[in-house]
Amino acid sequence: HTPQRTGSKIASAKIVGGDSAPYGAYPWQVEIKAYKPLSHKYEHHCAGAVIGDRVVLTAAHCISNLDHPEKMRIIVGKMDLSMNEYHERTYKPEKIIIHSDFRKMGPHSNDIAIIKVKDANNRGIQFNTHVQPICLPDSLSRRADVGDWCTVTGWGAQKSDDLESLSETLQVAAVPLWDLETCRGSDVYGGRDQSILDSMVCAGIKEGGVDACGGDSGGPLACQVNGRFVLTGLVSWGDGCAKKNRPGVYTRVSHYISWIQESLKKLGI
């Protein structure tokens, strides 16, 4: 995906400056819908990533701001929000674990949660050409590195000043990874309520114009490592969307591998 610079067309909610993704190109993408009592229907809420046939990773803040998280719906095989698609399947959550230290080191710290998907007919999420898990970072092999271009996907706000401007089709944008020292600089995110922790990763175009935005939260930042996509980050926070010197900040998945493994044991997976 060719990275687009400032002034490119504005794309989707939490993906600003992206392009529509081909159906099935990012088969680990999850849409999380929340039940809205006022409208009596399920509406787009967040995103996530499939990491196993019973497991989805997302951001903790996607769960903590729901009154009834047990009423959420997890949709896979989705690209176009305006229609039902051939590979689309909807699942209910069985159990949710939010990181116990969420918000302990600032309002966006440890922003990770794991969802166990309810079994349907003794089968979890069924994998096919359009629904597949994404690899987790491997502690032994090379990981995505500073300067690598990665892809962020979501249906988030297309306009940075209008968080209701959801995209109907899944958007993808290419963003380079930053080193933490640059991201901690006084001209970027230094001196804020939330310091940039080692458990975070910053990614974005320095000049702005391309970013995740509202509605993309919890979604995957995927990087190619040794020819395969690896889940490097989860959309967490940022200062607005696609601003100059304000990269997106993601939960660094490699920091949480042991927590994920412990959580899977607790969930009986």
UniProtKB/TrEMBL annotation:
Keyword Protease, does the record have it? yes
- A Gene Ontology BP annotation from the UniProt entry: proteolysis
- Catalytic reactions of this protein: Preferential cleavage: Arg-|-Xaa, Lys-|-Xaa
Reading the lineage from the top rank, the first entry is: Eukaryota
* A single MF term (Gene Ontology): serine-type endopeptidase activity
Q: Which Gene3D superfamilies match?
A: Trypsin-like serine proteases
Classification via InterPro entries: Peptidase_S1_PA, Peptidase_S1_PA_chymotrypsin, Peptidase_S1A, Trypsin_dom, TRYPSIN_HIS, TRYPSIN_SER
Keyword vocabulary terms for this entry: Disulfide bond, Hydrolase, Protease, Serine protease
Task: List the EC numbers from the record.
Answer: 3.4.21.10
Residue ranges occupied by any Peptidase S1 domain in the UniProt entry = 15-265
What is this protein called in UniProt?
Acrosin
